[in-house]
Structure formats: structure tokens, C-alpha cells
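Quick one, C-alpha cells below. Sequence please?
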């Protein structure tokens, strides 16, 4: 009986020991950091993410950005924007997503008195931006194209989910769609459990949480005339900054520099401001605002930003003067 009782004690101890060893050998899942890049929406997009499976999350985010491009790029033959342009003067049935982004774009068009205007497509075509065949249009071409511009002519029937633009007009959502794609990618990453990450898409940068080490993301704002220098450093956590500059896409003709940010009222590249960086919670809104402020110029642009809660800006004029909005003054480190 004693031997049997002793044997039972030994078996129990062995079982407990096995559980302890098993507990030691089982490792908790560890977060890892991954960075990947891909060419989307005519720019190199880099996504950094930290989590249990960040690579899968990043791949899903890239797929979402590609989906947004397929819907909103006017340079793709099967996009809804291409269909709207091809059927100008007719009603076109669209999705709730398209209605929502068009509504936001038209909101900023009205807010900026047309400085941001999605019906600028024909003007952009004339200058050749996005095609690689840049040219200075003649005055007759400009006058004809200007006659097709006017966001007020865009009709939206939300109940029937349809849109119509005036005959002869072309819409271009390039000033807001990239920011929207970044916002959508952020949502995909967060849904996948990413707690720390950054999306860099040209002049659009969005952050998720803090850096993996717990510190705040520090993002530099490029000097508009010297790419090796910064004009400022901004700390970001769950925020976005979007920069529009005359140095992003331009060409020189007869010694004159022409950039891609066209003034919808004149038909020519905007003069006076050379860089606008907008800081806020959503990239789509910051995208539209950066263009609007650029076209409005220093004085009116400052007034617009100061009137909007949640959004701040850094504006650089052609003389090199830098203006920082009141809500960002204590958060930015000027260089």
C-alpha cells in the first residue's frame, strides 16, 4: 500500500512538472515591425506597421488603396470618374462611397470659393500634367477650358444615387482621392489590430498611435527649394499631414517654371505660395485643404485655416516667409 501511495505521489509530481515545463516552453505571440513599399496612385507608398501579423495587414492596406484608385482615377478607363466624364451631361448611377467623396469635395469647393474645384479636368489636360507631355496652352485653349469649369454645375441626386456634370466638363478628384485612399488604408490597418504605424504616400503622411518604442512620430516638412533641408518638424500621433508644393510636379519652358497646382479662376499655375502643409485628423480633408489654401494665397489661406477647428497649417510664400497657424505654433519645431 505504501509503495502504491508513493507511486501515485511520483506520478502527480511528474504531471505537475510537465505542466510547468510546458508553460515555460509556450511563448506568447510577439509584435514585430514591418515596412513595405509599392507604387500606387502615381507615387511610391510606404507603410510601416507593428503588430502580430503586420505584413498581412500592410498587404491588405495596399489592396484597399489600389481599389480606391480603380474607383476614382480619371486616368483608368473603367473607373467611375472616367464614366462620369465620358457621359458628361447625363446622369450616372454611383455608389454611396462615390457620393460621399464627391460631397466632401464639393464642400471644400464651396468653402474655398472655388479655389479647390473638381471640374478642373480639362485645364489639367491642357497643361499635360499626369501625361508626361507638358506644354503651355495658348490663350484660346485656356478660355475654352475655363468655360467648362464650375463646381456649382455638378448635380448630385443622393436619393437616386446618381451624379451629372455639365456637358463638356471633366472632373478630377486627384486633389482629394489620394488622401481618401490613405484614410481607407489606415482603417484597414487598425481593423487588423495595428496599434503603431505610418503611411507615407508622397506628400500625404498619416500615423497610427505612437512609434513602437512609445515615442511620438516626428515628421519633417521639406524645404520647397532644397530637398536636402527641412523647414519644420511636426510631432504626430493619430494625425495626418499633407503637403502641396510647386516642386512636386513642374516643367520649365523658355526659362519659366510651371507647376501642377492650377488656379481654376485663371487657368495658370498659382503664384504667390510655394508650399502648404495641412495638419489634422483626416488625410482626405487635409488633401483638399492644402490645394485650396495654396490657390487662395497667404492672406486668404491663413483666414480659411484659422476658421476651421481641428486643422492647422504651415504656409511658405515665394519670398520664403513662413506662417504657422495659431493652433500649431507650440507644436512645430521650425528649422
Amino acid at each position: 500500500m505504501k509503495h502504491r501511495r508513493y507511486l501515485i505521489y511520483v506520478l502527480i509530481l511528474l504531471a505537475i512538472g510537465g505542466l510547468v515545463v510546458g508553460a515555460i516552453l509556450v511563448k506568447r505571440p510577439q509584435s514585430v515591425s514591418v515596412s513595405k513599399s509599392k507604387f500606387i496612385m502615381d507615387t511610391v507608398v510606404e507603410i510601416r506597421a507593428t503588430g502580430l501579423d503586420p505584413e498581412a495587414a500592410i498587404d491588405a492596406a495596399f489592396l484597399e488603396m489600389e481599389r480606391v484608385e480603380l474607383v476614382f482615377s480619371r486616368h483608368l478607363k473603367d473607373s467611375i470618374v472616367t464614366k462620369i466624364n465620358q457621359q458628361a451631361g447625363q446622369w450616372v448611377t454611383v455608389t454611396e462611397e462615390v457620393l460621399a467623396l464627391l460631397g466632401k469635395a464639393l464642400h471644400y469647393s464651396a468653402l474655398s470659393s472655388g479655389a479647390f474645384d473638381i471640374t478642373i479636368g480639362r485645364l489639367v489636360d491642357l497643361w499635360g500634367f499626369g501625361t508626361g507631355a507638358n506644354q503651355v496652352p495658348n490663350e484660346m485653349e485656356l478660355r475654352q477650358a475655363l468655360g467648362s469649369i464650375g463646381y456649382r454645375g455638378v448635380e448630385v441626386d443622393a436619393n437616386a444615387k446618381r451624379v451629372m456634370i455639365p456637358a463638356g466638363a471633366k472632373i478630377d478628384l486627384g486633389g482629394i482621392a489620394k488622401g481618401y485612399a490613405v484614410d481607407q488604408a489606415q482603417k484597414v490597418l487598425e481593423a487588423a489590430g495595428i496599434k503603431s504605424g505610418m503611411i507615407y504616400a508622397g506628400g500625404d503622411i498619416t500615423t497610427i498611435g505612437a512609434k513602437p518604442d512609445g515615442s511620438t512620430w516626428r515628421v519633417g516638412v521639406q524645404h520647397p527649394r532644397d530637398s536636402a533641408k527641412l523647414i519644420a518638424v511636426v510631432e504626430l500621433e493619430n494625425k495626418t499631414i499633407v503637403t502641396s508644393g510647386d516642386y512636386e510636379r513642374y516643367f520649365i519652358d523658355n526659362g519659366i517654371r510651371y507647376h501642377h497646382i492650377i488656379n481654376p479662376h485663371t487657368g495658370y499655375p498659382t503664384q504667390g505660395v510655394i508650399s502648404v502643409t495641412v495638419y489634422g485628423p483626416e488625410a482626405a480633408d487635409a488633401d483638399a485643404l492644402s490645394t485650396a489654401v495654396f490657390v487662395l494665397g497667404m492672406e486668404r489661406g491663413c483666414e480659411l485655416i484659422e476658421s476651421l477647428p481641428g486643422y492647422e497649417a504651415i504656409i511658405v510664400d515665394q519670398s520664403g516667409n513662413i506662417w504657422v497657424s495659431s493652433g500649431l505654433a507650440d507644436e512645430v519645431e521650425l528649422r
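The longest helix spans residues 2-25. Confidence is low (pLDDT under 50) at residues 1-16, 18-25.
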